[in-house]
Design goal:
Length: 262
């Protein structure tokens, strides 16, 4: 196997293992991860990735620790969700400190989208035709709305009135999740691995971290596949805004449709 491909494959494996071990509280696993990190440290080209991933691990540990308190006993579900989503800031803190120490931009994708950039359908970088990002987003939001509408209608107006605040908070707070994966992590990994591998890594991390909020591992992998599109659109548009809008729409409609008990 080519050395570059080996390094990037090892990077994906290390990222996945760290998130799994942290969420399952596997001390032996974390010990093995540390030993592997020491061995990979001998390869100087791996050091930036290891430092970035270690900072992510510190942030995820803080996030999990804060959410281990019994906030589920709170009387209002909205407060629990807001607490959980705002605690994503703890993941961003070590990454922000790393950017400050290295004197590099914390997030490169916090800018106006390049709406007219062309992408391929259906796989962003390849497909049977090309459209601009503005049209792709409109079509995607329309497809999402049509797909969820039967569930929303079945729940009725009463359910909408009960959960509108929860849906708003859950949709709004996804911006912090995007800042972690399509913001800080995609910025660092794109520098270290290139755009496509960075999209793969951040999508895998995005999916796996959903285990911490109660999703089974198979569902986490489904989320990771969705993350590939989020990452690809961010790279193509050079902005997080399109995926923040897309992600917010999906989250809100999942709550309105009763498909997500958060």
């Amino acid at each position: 196997m080519h050395h570059g491909v080996f390094r990037r494959t090892a990077s994906l494996a290390m990222l996945a293992a760290l998130l799994v071990f942290l969420q399952t509280e596997s001390m032996p696993g974390l010990g093995c991860w540390g030993l592997c990190a020491i061995l990979l440290w001998l390869d100087k080209s791996m050091r930036p990735f290891l430092i970035t991933t270690a900072c992510l691990g510190i942030g995820v540990f803080l996030y999990l620790s804060v959410n281990s308190y019994r906030v589920g006993d709170w009387s209002r579900e909205e407060l629990r969700i807001l607490y959980n989503r705002l605690s994503l800031l703890l993941i961003l803190l070590p990454l922000a400190a790393l950017a400050l120490c290295k004197r590099v931009p914390f997030i490169r994708y916090w800018r106006k989208p390049q709406w007219n950039e062309r992408i391929s359908v259906p796989f962003i970088w390849s497909g049977y035709r090309e459209v601009n990002i503005r049209l792709f987003l409109i079509l995607s939001l329309t497809a999402v709305a049509i797909g969820f509408m039967p569930f929303v209608i079945a729940r009725g107006w009463g359910h909408f009135q009960e959960v509108w605040l929860l849906a708003f908070l859950f949709a709004f707070a996804n911006g912090l999740e995007e800042m972690v994966w399509r913001g800080a992590m995609l910025t660092r990994y794109a520098e270290q691995m290139g755009d496509i591998w960075a999209v793969a890594a951040t999508s895998l991390g995005f999916g796996l971290l959903h285990y911490s909020v109660g999703f089974p591992w198979w569902a986490c992998l489904v989320y990771a596949i969705g993350g590939l599109y989020f990452g690809g659109i961010t790279i193509k548009s050079q902005s997080m805004l399109p995926v923040i809008l897309w992600h917010a729409a999906i989250n809100a409609l999942m709550v309105f449709g009763g498909l997500l008990n958060v």
